Amino acid sequence: MNRKVLSVGLLSAVFWIKAQNKDSLQFSKIDEVVITGQYKQQSINKSIYKVEVIDAQQIKNMAATTASEVLSQNLNILIEPNSGSGDSNAKIMGLGGAYTKVLIDNIPVVSDQGMGNQVDLSKINVNNIERIEIVKGAMGVEYGNNAVAGVINIITKKNYSKKVSALVSLQEETVGKDYDWYKKGNGRHIQNLNLGFRISENWSLTADVNRNDFQGYKGELEGYKYFSDNNDKKRGYNWLPKDQITANAAVRYSKNNTSFFLKSNFLNENINFYNRVIEDLPLGNGNRTYIANDRNYFTTRWIHQFNIQTKIGSRINYLGDFSYQSQERKSQDFVYDIPNRKTLSEEDKKLFYESKVFYSRGMFSNFLDNEKIDFQLGYELDRTSGFAGSETFAFNNNGININRSIFNYANFLSAEWKVNNQISFRPGVRLALSDKFDSQYNYSFTARFNPSEKSDFRAVFGSSNRFPVYDELYTFVVDNNHDIRGNENLKPETGYSLGLFYDFSNSKTNAWRTNISISAMYLDVKDRIESVIVSNSPLKYTFLNVNNYNSLLFGGGFSVRKDQLSFNGGVSVMGISQSLTTGNMNSPENYKFYTEANFSANYTLPKVKTLFALYYKYTGVQKQFTQKALENPGQTPEYVLGEIGAFNMMNFTVSQPFFNNHLEVSLGVKNIFDVSDVRNTVISGGAHNSGTGSQNLFYGRSYFARLNYQF
After folding, report:
1. Cα(398)–Cα(404) distance, rounded to whole angstroms?
2. CA-CA distance, 321 to 325, in Å (whole number)?
3. Paired strand residues for 461
4. Is the pTM of this model over 0.70?
5. Following CA atoms 522, 644, 154, 506 in sequence, which dihedral angle do they give, to the nearest 10 degrees?
6. pLDDT tens string 296-313
7. What are the angstrom distances between the C-alpha of 555 and each of 71, 440, 515, 594, 609?
8. Is-contact 63 706, C-beta < 8 A?
9. CA 20 to 30 Å from 515, out of 72, 86, 346, 601?
């Protein structure tokens, strides 16, 4: 019923708005400009860094609804869902979400674990995204801590050409084979309303609201209604049901050399966990029922930000970012009577995670007003205060809640020297200060050489740190079965990367436009933090800076476009070497390589404007050494070669506009090869324990229908 009410409300709101002059439903072509790692917004071809761009039209063609769905098509990015929390993190170059900085409009996003890292990408909807910029490799000078594997910068839409514009979008999807509009428990239901008001030549307002109602994926389980007296643990969902609402409101001003925008983002998400364990509850007089101890999770997040670009005096460019963000997560336990479909008892909501962050970043450039030499001076600061309830950890900190705050401040300096029209260099350095950790230095050096207008060479060196997270610092449990302790003396990990990139483009008028790219990257992470056995008898664990991690990446890609037809593709080979230490035992350190490939094709019929879009990605078998689980505390540690199975993903979409492009209907299928579980004998048992099962990455083949109406 709520779903129906929201759909009717969205349609009513947009019909209230007076229809404007004819406007195409298709996004206008966006000039390929980037801001990530730049002194100012500029053409991607002139960027000193290798920046990958996914624009709004590509996102629309994918029929993606969250950032996690969009990024899963990118080479060397694996989106890993967590079936326990419902979160999805990006794994780049073999490293998890703790090593990647996620930004929205250049500002790091708050998460349970801090600022910008371990961000749940499924909480970022794509309805107002203009483009996503990706830079792989250590970016510590520009973006500070935790930008070891790279940076994902999500740029939102801010400009509207019409005085008043409104877009309503309704999307219905199956989840695997399950779909039902009327009954709770099946399918995915998405509604979106996007409004834009151009008040004057200088002022504009935007607002949008999006609801993503995901009713869960059962997989081999049977859903929340299932019960059996033999307790076969088939109740519940492989992917937890979640109901997510996001809203944005922004005001933008632009005149002469000054532009700014003020934006607020709100997120509310409810996740339902249904326990697999069913208990028999006697009711007296020979009667009984079956109950489960279930739990709901509630996330509320606010992001307030202010961005300004202006000139100080007549020369100096200033770019300033300011943000206050908060996120809290609560849980609520309840006892559910399964046969009678009712709640027997319900506890109060408990706060188990809270983060509050004040963040500011400022950059000054163009001091010399010289086309050949420029330098940038910047600062960055953030104060993060966090609360972690004792139930947060797998081992519960002996029932003690944790309240901590950390203040970080950094200055960074870089200089860009354009020797001539073909050669340019940019060295950089950052000094980061913290009231928790020792001072950290990061360095970078970038060189660009373009022998002609068609080709570019780039060489990029960078470093970054990864700070320890809550459970590594503060976990503490000592009982009859466990002795596992965090380590407050941990030091940050340090990562270094080196990348070599070559790009060639041929864009003659009325001919095939071709782009070819070749790349090679090396990543070295030192002092990796791992859970380590410090005593076999009795068995004791702690966290130490003991391991190293290295990855090698070789890749190539192409883009071919003419008129209404385009092809894009790429292939990469990545090798990972890591040393694991347990007591006096070390794992083998030889590289294990695996292959990835992707391909996309888009074609629009010239007369009727029907769009056909195909997206494909292959991920090869990954092998990694991991510690074999010990049967007794005195057993000698042994390392075995675990494996993550190969899989293929393919999506297909057909879109047809009507009524002078005001209405568009799209139909398609996601995950054509029906992938759900992937064999995994690496991470199922943890970082230092081998697993014997599988990893759930997707929820099988699904079909969707989308309706867009542009007023």
Report:
1. 17
2. 13
3. 445, 498
4. yes
5. 60
6. 999 999 999 999 999 998
7. 17, 32, 14, 12, 34
8. yes
9. 72
